[in-house]
Amino acid sequence: MGPARTSLSPLPLEIPVSRSRSAVRPPNPTDPPLRGLLRLARWGPVLTAVAALGVAAEVVWSVRRPLPGLVGIDTSGTVPGRGPGPPLRLVALGDSSLTGPGLEHPDQIWLREALGRLDLDRPIEVLSLAVGGSRVADVAGRVDEALALRPDLVVVAVGSNDVVHATPVRQLTAQLDAVVSRLLDEVTVVAMANVGDMGNVARVPPPLEAVLRARSRTARRAIERVVASHAGAVLLDVTAADPAFRDRSVFAADLFHPGPAGHLSWGEAATPGLGRALDRLAQPAAVLGLGAERSREGAADTQRGPVPAPSSV
Predict the structure, then answer these.
(1) Cα–Cα distance measured from residue 26 to residue 29, given in angstroms and rounded to the nearest whole number
(2) Angle between helix 206-228 and helix 32-64 axes, rounded to 10 deg
(3) Tell me, what's the pLDDT at 283?
(4) pLDDT tens-place string over residues 8-42
(5) Most buried residue among 43, 214, 247, 256 by CB atoms closer than 10 A?
(6) What is the dihedral of CA 235, 245, 126, 93, to 10 degrees?
């Protein structure tokens, strides 16, 4: 018989458990990790604002960074018509979209291009007061100068620089409304171009193009609301040209302003609206509803109030 086997019973496994509740304590704001989180929470709004300013600065830098500088031209001149009658006088107010930096001849600018596409009964004398870099506030300061030229029609093309510099949309809307109202005191029709998709600008890097695209949409809606609120205003919708501007070749050498192909696309898009504006010149003011609007101007400004607008571009 072999040796007797000793039965070994397993030893109990004991896990020490603290019976004291004092081991669990509430978070202490003085703990280093919590201090960091609290500090971040306090500075969060400031950091957000700094980030927003950084994006705005990058947008402006992208548009203004050193690239070939281009000189604008004067789009003033006479566009011939079929008849020999006295020319209609058209005054243009706006930014470099009307001065064509990089173009060689005024006929290449979209406004002259669009006029050339129309079957004009009479010649049109174009007088341009456009200045490159203008914002809506700058155009507002030249309205009286434009009216002193006694125009039959005023064309306004502005807003792109307001998109770049993030002009607050309430300010943009109020200034545009004031410009159109003042012009319609003296002229029968005002034709206003909206803003294309600035996110397509070739010199803007992809991370920032979404910012300009969103601002463009906001500014465009503001312009269109202002036009719709005035019986004598006509929209020149250039957004049909947006797909063409996805091609880098439509830009001038500075990669910001449109080249000849870009102005050609803008002119084609603006032609229908410009034709409607000129057709309305032949209609009596009563038919257009302008006589009543002007006779009630003081009351209308009080009743109508400012054009509604979102809070920011």
Answers:
(1) 9
(2) 70
(3) 77
(4) 444 444 444 444 444 445 555 455 555 544 554 56
(5) 256
(6) 60
DSSP state of 83: S
Name the residue among 245, 159, 266, 259 with its Cα closest to residue 202.
245
Q: What angle do CA 195, 245, 202 make, to 5 degrees?
A: 100
pTM higher than 0.85? no
Distance CA 256, CA 65 (A): 11
Return the structure tokens found at 71. Answer: 């000189």
Distance in angstroms (rounded) separating the CA atoms of residues 127 and 263: 19
Query: 12 CB contacts (<8 Å, ≥6 apart)?
Result: none
And the tokens for 84? 């020999």
The DSSP output letter for 251 is: B
Share of the chain above pLDDT 70, in %: 68
Report the 10 Å Cβ neighbour count for 250. Answer: 20
For residue 147, the model assigns a pLDDT of 98
SS3 of residue 307 by DSSP: coil
The Cα 52–Cα 38 span in angstroms is 22
Under 8 Å between Cβ of 144 and 133? no
**CA 187 distance to own-chain centroid:** 26
